């Protein structure tokens, strides 16, 4: 189950510098989990989670395999992308394949780095990209509506459902609001997702600040944070230059460097965790002598579906799940002590897996 976050932004905002830091971090983690660069602009990184190391220590696991996130470095957008300007068509197609958007915004002054619009205004930059995506969505909606005419005349139920959703999305876009502002019920979610609207995807604003502001942000990034709060979007402040330096350091040097910069952790860790949260994801664990591993699932996933992330046979032949809460596993010192203390639960098909659950699945092969 892969989850892809597309890194977007206008040219010269630090997008590629940030992606380079991510991929260098991933390369450094290659000994600990299956890392691959699928294409030059796609990389996978581990999701930072200190719980996994603790579980591996208790379980005396030989290997530690964290959850992963995929990041895609998408070509820089220019005004007019919705009409094919620059690499517009490629840009829009790449975003459509992603589950969320990490929008890198320039929040630093540097006379040596030109700005495509001739000024540093991240809120306006965000509006430029949002406008292009909204225009592309309107064009997509109009094409879909035209394609539904014949099916609607034939009283096609599925076409009628699509038509209602398309009309609601169009009304929002005509009002200057992205498709993600439309309230969608659980029953409508699947059909809504199939529309693949660009502005329906969750957005994380990444404020790229100068090195001196990495720990606190600056007045410019504060404006972006205010915008994000108003939209209900995510927001993180980082310095792409610092992250690129950190990614090249050994662990001991990294700790010393972070302390010198007044940072508790790399900004990339916050970016990855926020991307994880933005997608509504959570983690469950499996722990044994061979490996301790984190598995990614959407929040609210039922036990059989969670089992299927490991292997399809686990889901098809699901019998029950043996579950221990993370806090109980750690406090009691492992699976057997937790079982003896009555803290291991036997859960059936209706169980919704909780974040941090340590699980063992029983199934018929």
In short:
By secondary structure, the chain is α/β, with parallel strands linked by helices. Helix content is 43%, strand content 19%.
Give the SSE layout.
Elements: E1 4-8, H1 15-28, E2 42-46, H2 50-59, E3 63-65, E4 68-73, H3 88-96, E5 100-106, H4 122-153, H5 157-174, H6 189-194, E6 203-208, H7 219-231, E7 234-238, H8 240-246, H9 251-261, H10 267-278, E8 281-287, E9 291-298, H11 303-310, H12 312-316, E10 318-324, H13 326-332, H14 335-340, E11 345-347, E12 358-363
Parallel strand pairs: 1-4, 1-5, 3-9, 5-6, 6-7
Antiparallel strand pairs: 2-4, 8-9, 10-11, 10-12
Characterise this structure.
- The protein is an alpha/beta fold.
- It is 43% helix and 19% strand.
- The chain contains 14 helices and twelve strands.
- The protein has a six-stranded mixed sheet with strand order 2-4-1-5-6-7, sandwiched between helices. The protein has a three-stranded mixed sheet with strand order 3-9-8, with helices on both faces.
- The two termini are 21 Å apart.
- Mean pLDDT is 87; it is low at 28-38.
């Amino acid at each position: 189950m892969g989850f892809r976050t597309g890194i977007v932004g206008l040219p010269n905002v630090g997008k590629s510098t940030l992606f380079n830091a991510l991929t260098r971090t991933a390369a450094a983690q290659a000994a600990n989990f299956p890392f691959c660069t699928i294409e030059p602009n796609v990389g996978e990184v581990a999701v930072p989670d200190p719980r996994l190391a603790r579980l591996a220590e208790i379980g005396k696991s030989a290997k530690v395999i964290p959850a992963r996130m995929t990041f895609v470095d998408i070509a820089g957008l220019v005004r007019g992308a919705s009409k094919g300007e620059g690499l517009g068509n490629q840009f829009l197609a790449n975003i459509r394949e992603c589950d969320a958007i990490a929008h890198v915004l320039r929040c630093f002054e540097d006379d040596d780095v030109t700005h495509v619009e001739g000024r540093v205004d991240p809120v306006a930059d965000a509006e430029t990209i949002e406008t292009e995506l909204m225009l592309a969505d309107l064009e997509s909606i109009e094409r879909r509506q035209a394609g539904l005419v014949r099916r609607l005349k034939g009283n096609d139920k599925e076409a009628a459902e699509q038509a209602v959703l398309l009309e609601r999305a169009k009304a929002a876009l005509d009002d200057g609001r992205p498709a993600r502002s439309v309230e969608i019920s659980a029953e409508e979610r699947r059909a809504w997702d199939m529309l693949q609207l660009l502005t329906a995807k969750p957005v994380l604003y990444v404020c790229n600040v100068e090195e001196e502001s990495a720990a606190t942000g600056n007045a410019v990034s504060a404006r972006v944070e205010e915008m994000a709060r108003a939209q209900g979007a995510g927001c993180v402040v980082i310095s792409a230059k610092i992250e690129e330096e950190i990614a090249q350091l050994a662990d001991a040097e990294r700790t010393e460097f972070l302390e010198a910069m007044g940072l508790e952790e790399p900004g990339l860790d916050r970016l990855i965790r926020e991307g994880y949260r933005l997608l509504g994801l959570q983690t469950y664990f499996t722990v044994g002598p061979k490996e301790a591993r984190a598995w990614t699932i959407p929040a609210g996933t039922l036990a059989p579906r969670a089992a299927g992330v490991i292997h399809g046979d686990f889901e098809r032949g699901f019998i029950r799940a043996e579950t221990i809460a993370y806090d109980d596993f750690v406090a009691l010192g492992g699976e057997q002590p937790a079982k003896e203390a009555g803290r291991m639960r036997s859960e059936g098909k209706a169980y919704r897996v909780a974040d941090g659950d340590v699980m063992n699945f029983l199934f018929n092969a």
